[in-house]
UniProtKB/TrEMBL annotation, chains A, B:
The keyword Transcription applies. Its main location: cytoplasm. Gene3D superfamilies: 1.10.1660.10. Residues 1-69 form the HTH merR-type domain. The keyword Repeat does not apply. It is found in: Cytoplasm. NCBIfam families: CueR (TIGR02044). One of its GO terms (biological process) is positive regulation of DNA-templated transcription. PANTHER family: HEAVY METAL-DEPENDENT TRANSCRIPTIONAL REGULATOR HI_0293-RELATED, REDOX-CYCLING DRUG-SENSING TRANSCRIPTIONAL ACTIVATOR SOXR. This is HTH merR-type domain-containing protein. One of its GO terms (molecular function) is DNA binding. The lineage of its organism: Bacteria, Pseudomonadati, Pseudomonadota, Alphaproteobacteria, Sphingomonadales. It comes from the Bacteria. SUPFAM superfamilies: Putative DNA-binding domain. It comes from Sphingobium lactosutens DS20.
Length: 150, 150
DNA sequence: CTTGACCTTCCAATGATGGGAAGCCTCACA
DNA sequence: TGTGAGGCTTCCCATCATTGGAAGGTCAAG
């Protein structure tokens, strides 16, 4: 199976398949005499596994751990659960940060006349944040990667 | 005021101040004879404005629009409100996507024994997603940039 | 005058992804 | 058997916001 077919079957783009191979997330694919990569149905399963984990927001490093457990028939489900649980916490942190942003913005938007006059509490708050509108710890609020999927 | 002091006063790192200047988000700073950039309190206000908008999750392109409105004394608050409102929608989309991930994962985690046996519904679902656990539209779910803040 | 803290520019890396060019391979069709 | 389309290969570049570092100039205090 060529890379294009594997891509279509797995939902992972050919570009990304090569990238995952290059970064070591997946083993180097077999090659035909022509140099073309050759994928088995098992490989496609692995790619779908990765695709699915990405859809759930796992970072590539986490996916790597999950893949190792997937391949390990003597894994302990506790290890899988731990990874998933810690990912949940991470997601919840991000959600919390985003919710705080929304709350702040909604407060401001609801105070803005939205007419043709220049006075605007949103601008005012950006200039000089009012105490009530504070983001939590300006430090590390729920910030993080979530992929480019155009 | 040197760039380091402006950075400290505004909460925007010196690196980022130079970057914003380079990309045209902010005008080129005045220079002293030595070549050092020189910032006025007004410049620091602008930097704090940017910092604050970043904290609220605005993308740099949006910040650019906001800065233009900020500088425009004959702005219409409606324009500001529109930008803020559309940013709220964007944030809410992201939150929705993240919540769906959390829901799916929580369903799986709650079904996982988390012991030393290998059987694990999380792994199983990654292999072959069960219908109930679906992400919404595998397409463009709340995906987006949110900065690296280490 | 020396020293250390600051500033300058330039270059590189991050993570996940897409875009494109130059060149080889394959298959179907005439 | 030749040819063309389309797939594959590698390699390089761009994204976005941000950080890091190296090499060298400047400033202020001792």
């Amino acid at each position: 199976m060529n890379i294009g077919q594997a891509a279509k079957a797995s939902g992972v783009s050919a570009k990304m398949i090569r990238y995952y191979e290059q970064t070591g997330l997946i083993p180097k694919a077999d090659r035909r005499d022509s140099g073309y990569r050759d994928y088995s149905p098992g490989d496609v399963n692995m790619l779908r596994f990765i695709r699915r984990a990405r859809d759930l927001g796992f970072a590539v490093t986490e996916i790597n751990e999950l893949l190792n457990l997937w391949r390990d028939r003597s894994r302990h489900s506790a290890d899988v659960k731990r990874i998933a649980q810690s990912h949940i916490f991470e997601l919840q942190d991000r959600i919390k940060g985003l919710n705080q942003m929304v709350d702040t913005l909604q407060g401001l938007v609801s105070c803005c006349a939205g007419d043709d006059r220049p006075d605007c509490p949103i601008i005012a708050d950006l200039e000089e944040p009012s105490s009530g509108s504070a983001l939590p710890a300006p430090a590390s609020v729920g910030i993080g990667r979530l992929r480019h999927r155009p």
